[in-house]
Amino acid sequence: MRIAIFSDIHGKILLPFKLVDAYQNETGKKIDLILQCGDVGAFPDLSVLDKATLRYAEEDPDELGFHDDFVREKEEIRSFLDRVDVKMVCVRGNHEDHDFLDRLEAENPDSDIFPVDAYGKVWFCKSGKPLSFEKNGEKISFLGIGRIGDPKNRDNKRYVQDYERREIRKALKKANGFDLLLTHDKATGNGGVGGMPEIRFSLDNAFFAYHFHGHTGEPFFERKDSNGKTVTCKIKELEFSKGGALEAGSMIVLEKKNGKLGEIQKVGQKVLSCATRFGWKYL
């Protein structure tokens, strides 16, 4: 089994699928699942854009990609996504239409993930709900925690909610561990300020082989968490540099073979350079 992992795509919903297609063409290796660490930019209604997204969208129309390309079906995009044949499962970031996601979450009470797009390819997972994915006899387990932490305990929906805190604690009581922890925010601790205490609690109270997150704006890194067990990986935001290129560490591939997880693989520039700021949609 092989999964690709991205963070902060900010409306460029199609780009991870384009990069997966380029990776498969270059390597001949199939990607079975995409995981995404939040800030999808899921805004079907442009009247509710948050201030930051609205500001960035004035310079980069790709910030509006969910509204433009994934709310109503377009034949050429449907054809491409069907050919690539992979699903993207996301956690919530802080830049999403949370009222929209809340409605869809409520409409899917019996499922721990729910589709949000016209093609059935982009799914969000509910925070604190244990998930697993099986392919070709391999199984990968993960726990998703969306949104960001807030030391002031404000009730804005971009911050982790009380019902999600309860689900996280419930999941940790029932399970001894998971392959992956997928979050938007970082954990508190490990130096620096900010982060989400609920992520710290999860890392300290269950086993995770890997923790993937975005949000912070830092370059790619991987290092051992303070719990001494988990490898934490900050994935570079999927954004173009001033020169128009994607940066190293913005696409990660992880394999599970014979029941064992491999090492984190940073996808190289040969694949990333296929996508440029003004040409990536034409890949």
Overall mean confidence score, pLDDT: 95
User: What is the number of independent domains?
Assistant: 1
How many individual β-strands?
14
The profile of the biggest β sheet is: 8 strands, mixed
Unreliable runs: none
Domain Calcineurin-like phosphoesterase: 1-217
GO molecular function: hydrolase activity
Pfam family, one: Metallophos
Protein name: Calcineurin-like phosphoesterase domain-containing protein
Question: How would you describe what is shown here?
Answer:
- GO terms for molecular function: hydrolase activity.
- The chain is α/β, with parallel strands linked by helices and 283 residues long.
- It has one domain: 4-Layer Sandwich (Purple Acid Phosphatase, chain A, domain 2).
- It is 26% helix and 23% strand.
- The chain is built from 8 helices and 14 strands.
- It has helices at residues 14-27, 51-59, 65-69, 75-84, 98-107, 162-174, 197-205, 269-272, and strands at 2-6, 33-36, 88-90, 113-115, 122-125, 130-135, 138-145, 177-183, 207-213, 221-224, 231-234, 252-257, 260-261, 265-266.
- Strands 1, 2, 3, 4, 5, 12, 13 and 14 form an 8-stranded mixed sheet that branches. A 6-stranded mixed sheet has the order 6-7-8-9-11-10.
- β7 (138-145), α6 and β8 (177-183) form a beta-alpha-beta unit.
- The chain is globular, with a radius of gyration of 18 Å.
- The protein starts with a strand and ends in an 11-residue tail after the last helix.
- The model has no long low-confidence stretch (mean pLDDT 95).
